[in-house]
Design a protein that fits this description.
α4 packs across α7 and α6 packs across α7. This protein has 130 residues and is an all-alpha fold. The chain has a domain of 67 residues. It has seven helices and no strands. Bound molecules: heme C. Heme C binds next to α5 and α6.
Length: 130
C-alpha cells in the first residue's frame, strides 16, 4: 500500500516538474533561439546541390583538335614521336608548367590552354591513335 502511494507522488511530482519546465522555456528565450536553428537547417540542405557540378571528364577528341591547332607546329603532327618531350603532357600539369615558364617559347599559349584544355590534350596524348 505504501509503495503504491509513493509511486503516485513521484508521478505527480514529475508531471508538475515537466509542466514547469515547459512553461519556463516558452517564456523568455523562445524568440531568439529557434531562429538560429532554422538558419542552420537551411544551410545544410542547400550545400549538396553545387557539389555535383565540376565533374566534366576530359575529351581525347577535343584534345586532338587542340593539339593540331596549338602544338603540332612545334611538336609535330604525330605526338607519338615525342618531339621536344611532348609526351610529358600526358600529365596535364607538365603542359601547364611548361606554358607558365615559357619553356620552348610556349608561353604565348597561356591565354588559349587552361586546365580544361590541358586535360583534354593529356587524354589525347595517352591515346594518339584516335
Ligand atoms: C613554339 C613552339 C611550341 C609550341 C607551339 C608548343 N610547344 Fe611544347 N615545347 C616546345 C619546346 C621547344 C619544348 C622543349 C622545352 C625544353 O626542353 O625546355 C616543349 C616542351 C613541352 C613539354 C615538356 C615540358 C617538360 O616538362 O619538359 C610539354 C608537355 C609540351 N611542350 C606540351 C605542349 C603542348 C600540349 C602544346 C600545345 C598546347 C605545346 N607544347 C605547344 C615548343 C612548343
Amino acid at each position: 500500500m505504501n509503495t503504491h502511494l509513493h509511486r503516485l507522488t513521484l508521478i505527480a511530482l514529475t508531471t508538475s516538474l515537466a509542466a514547469l519546465t515547459a512553461c519556463g522555456g516558452g517564456g523568455g528565450g523562445d524568440s531568439t533561439t529557434p531562429a538560429a536553428t532554422t538558419t542552420a537547417g537551411t544551410d545544410t540542405t542547400a550545400t549538396p546541390a553545387p557539389a555535383a557540378a565540376p565533374a566534366a571528364s576530359p575529351s581525347a577528341l577535343n584534345g586532338k583538335s587542340l593539339y593540331q591547332a596549338n602544338c603540332a607546329s612545334c611538336h609535330g603532327g604525330n605526338p607519338a614521336q615525342n618531339i621536344s618531350k611532348v609526351l610529358k603532357g600526358t600529365a596535364p600539369g607538365n603542359t601547364l608548367n611548361a606554358i607558365a615558364s615559357n619553356a620552348g617559347g610556349m608561353g604565348y599559349l597561356s591565354g588559349t590552354i587552361g586546365a580544361a584544355q590541358a586535360n583534354d590534350i593529356a587524354a589525347y596524348l595517352a591515346q594518339p591513335n584516335i
